Amino acid sequence: MKIVIETAKLLEVIDLWLRFVSKNATLPILQNFYFKANIDGLLLRATDMEKYIEIEIPCKIIMEGAITVNARMFSDIIKTIEEKEVEISVDQKSQVMTLKSAKDNFDINGIAASEYVALPEVPNENTLSVETQLFAEGVSKVEYAVTEKNFSPVLTGVLLKAKQDNLIFVGTDSFRLSEFKAPSGKENDFALIVPKVTMTDIQKISEYAMSNQAENLTIKYSENLIAFQVQVKDMKILATSLLIQGNFPEYDREEIMPRNFNTKILVDKGLCEKAIRKIGILTRDINNYIQIETNQNSIIISSGKTDKGAGTTNIPAIIDGPSVSFWINGKYITDFIKIIKGDELTFNVIDNQKPLILMDKDDASYRYVVRPLINS
């Protein structure tokens, strides 16, 4: 194998590529990048056996061939090369990759490409096209509510579903739930649970595509697999992932995601975040729970009595409905505030025991459900 490739092309995709390399592999080859040069260009692969990536990059092919080399080492070396182009060659007998530029010469010991794992076939049963901007936004608005470690495997993933001409993203850890809904074309209804880490990786790919004016992402799926394809300039990126099997909680019920409320509280998000962080100095060691209480044209945010002391602060608010008081995890609120684009948020409250819904005042497509702390 012998090729000459623009260094910038590798640098553009190297961090995306690395995201798919196994971090705790029992098989050393899973810590490697896969390279294959043929008449069509350079094919790059990586996998951790649950998610897979293939990147096709055009380059000058002098000799065809293939190899795998340690991903971190290759990445660290290529990031030091300052020349416009780099020559990559492989001695197929010794399985050594050589990187050459005008100033540099590196040898990396590799493992034969024939020992690399086979990648799954891309599902073709169902296909849809999604705007890269919409996909990246959808993931960002729900993934923070998902934990990668949970007693229930389905709660370690993001629910991606199509229903009534909407594409819906949902994430939950059972204490809070985030839902983003966006209009889509007429698609067949489906519901897939995609691992959180996969969705975060595809979000990064979508953001990279957006930065290069690639507007659409193609999604293909089957019962067990989901694949994401995007063309970015002259490069093709294909990422595939196993799906999580199981039934996602039926969250769209009144007792979980209520639609009728007694009190609505409108506050400035910046003032709210500052107030919660202020009180959080006293509550960060007790699960960040704070008390929010309405008081005429303001809300009072307090810590209650803690081992460290007690504190209260208040911020202006527009209150529609009877007075309410409830305890809630302050971090859950600040997580939401970081994501919303508008300047104001609404607390939609029934009472101090039922789930409440936080919303961006200017965005009806995004709902965030939080369970209050119920004192016995």
Automatic annotation (TrEMBL):
It holds the Pfam family DNA_pol3_beta_2. Confers DNA tethering and processivity to DNA polymerases and other proteins. Acts as a clamp, forming a ring around DNA (a reaction catalyzed by the clamp-loading complex) which diffuses in an ATP-independent manner freely and bidirectionally along dsDNA. Initially characterized for its ability to contact the catalytic subunit of DNA polymerase III (Pol III), a complex, multichain enzyme responsible for most of the replicative synthesis in bacteria; Pol III exhibits 3'-5' exonuclease proofreading activity. GO terms for biological process: DNA strand elongation involved in DNA replication. Residues 130-250 form the DNA polymerase III beta sliding clamp central domain. GO terms for molecular function: 3'-5' exonuclease activity; DNA binding; DNA-directed DNA polymerase activity. InterPro entries: DNA_clamp_sf (IPR046938), DNA_polIII_beta (IPR001001), DNA_polIII_beta_C (IPR022635), DNA_polIII_beta_cen (IPR022637), DNA_polIII_beta_N (IPR022634). Residues 1-119 form the DNA polymerase III beta sliding clamp N-terminal domain. GO terms for cellular component: cytoplasm; DNA polymerase III complex. It comes from uncultured bacterium (gcode 4). Belongs to the beta sliding clamp family. Forms a ring-shaped head-to-tail homodimer around DNA. It is found in: Cytoplasm. Its main location: cytoplasm. It comes from the Bacteria. The keyword Cytoplasm applies. CDD domains: beta_clamp (cd00140). This is Beta sliding clamp. Keywords: Cytoplasm, DNA replication, DNA-binding, DNA-directed DNA polymerase, Nucleotidyltransferase, Transferase. Residues 255-372 form the DNA polymerase III beta sliding clamp C-terminal domain. Gene3D superfamilies: 3.70.10.10, DNA Polymerase III, subunit A, domain 2.
